[in-house]
From TrEMBL:
GO molecular-function terms, A-Z: ATP binding; ATP phosphoribosyltransferase activity; magnesium ion binding
GO cellular component annotations of the record: cytoplasm
Protein species of origin: uncultured Sphingosinicella sp
Localization terms from the record: Cytoplasm
EC annotation from Swiss-Prot or TrEMBL: 2.4.2.17
Source lineage: Bacteria, Pseudomonadati, Pseudomonadota, Alphaproteobacteria, Sphingomonadales
Domain of life assignment: Bacteria
The protein's name: ATP phosphoribosyltransferase
Gene: hisG
């Protein structure tokens, strides 16, 4: 049911990235038809079809141009890219979810003094290309043992001494008597786009889609700040406001020399920031979430 004139976006069918990927698209205003178990779904209010696939297939689909876009973990993407002569996709946005790290872990009691401790050992992983690249960059030669799952069992089974696996909390490692010793890659979900040239109508749609997604990503961090301040404090306050461009300054009725300052802050606003603003002379400080934004 691939249709002409519509974009195609591949997301993970079921797994750690599925709900976040759907959530992002919903926040971008896309209404997804159909249930979770179908292979494809039509977006009702935007000319785009979703394809629900295994995350490992997403880089291939996007590279071949079967799908113009895909959402996938950087770990899966890098592993794929290292096996390609030339990348046929590009990363267009880091999405801030699916965060994890690819780490080398060692048995708890084994001494580890840096990458040279890996020399001549066996390391089990589902990411042989990324691991080999790390070993090469560190001038270490070791045997990479490819496993498709249950990598953390390898040391206990005597298949390898070290493992190189995805870690988020480290609880799985600990449960298997392992400790992380080296970070090979910090990963999060990314949006990728095919490098194939798109016909004009699809290129336009793709710009529209990206501007919506950029808008969602921008609002996730952004806040609208309102505060009151005396004229002499305005410069200092403007300098404190995190990531704000040209705040709006409005005179307060009945309070000469006092102004309301409104600004969109593109970075997180912490309590410490509010404290500093207050210290600089601001009062009645309000921080509001932003629902939608288009730059
Ligand atoms: P599929 O059936 O699609 O092949 P999978 O088993 O390969 O699924 P998941 O376990 O759902 O994949 O993980 C998908 C992605 O989520 C990973 O590739 C990684 O980018 C990210 N991720 C985030 N946290 C973790 C974690 N703690 N362990 C593994 N992956 C994680
Ligand atoms: Zn997978």
């Amino acid at each position: 049911m691939i249709s002409e004139g519509r974009l195609h976006l591949a997301i993970q069918k079921s797994g750690r990235l599925s709900d976040f990927s759907r959530g992002l698209l919903r926040d971008a205003g896309l209404r997804i038809q159909n249930g979770k178990n179908d292979l494809t779904a039509r977006v009702e209010n935007f000319p785009i079809d979703l394809m629900f696939v295994r995350d490992d297939d997403i880089p291939t689909f996007v590279s071949d141009g079967v799908c113009e876009f895909g959402i996938v973990g950087r770990n899966v993407l890098d592993e794929f890219a290292l096996g390609e002569a030339e990348p046929r996709f590009e990363v267009v946005a880091a999405l801030g979810f699916g965060r994890c790290a690819l780490k080398i872990a060692a048995p708890e009691r084994l001494a580890y003094e840096g990458p040279q401790s890996l020399e001549g050992t066996r390391i089990a992983t589902s990411y042989p290309c990324i691991l080999q690249d790390f070993l090469d960059r560190n001038g270490v030669s070791a045997t990479v043992v490819k496993m498709n799952g249950a990598v953390e069992l390898a040391p206990r089974l005597g298949i390898a001494t070290f493992i190189c696996d995805l870690v988020s909390t480290g609880a799985t490692l600990e449960a298997n008597g392992l400790r992380p010793v080296e970070t090979v890659l910090e990963s999060e979900a990314v949006l990728i786009r095919t490098r194939k040239t798109l016909p004009e109508d699809k290129a336009d749609l793709s710009t529209r889609l990206l501007s919506r997604i950029d808008g969602v990503l921008a609002t996730q961090e952004s806040k609208y700040i309102m505060l009151n301040a005396p004229e002499e404090a305005l410069d200092e306050i403007a300098a404190i406001l995190p990531g704000a461009e040209s705040p709006t300054i409005i005179p307060l009725v009945g309070r000469p020399g006092h102004f309301a300052v409104h600004a969109v802050c593109q970075e997180s606003v912490f309590w410490e920031t509010l404290q500093k603003l207050k210290g600089a002379g601001a009062s009645a400080i309000l921080v509001l979430p932003i629902e939608k934004m288009m730059m």
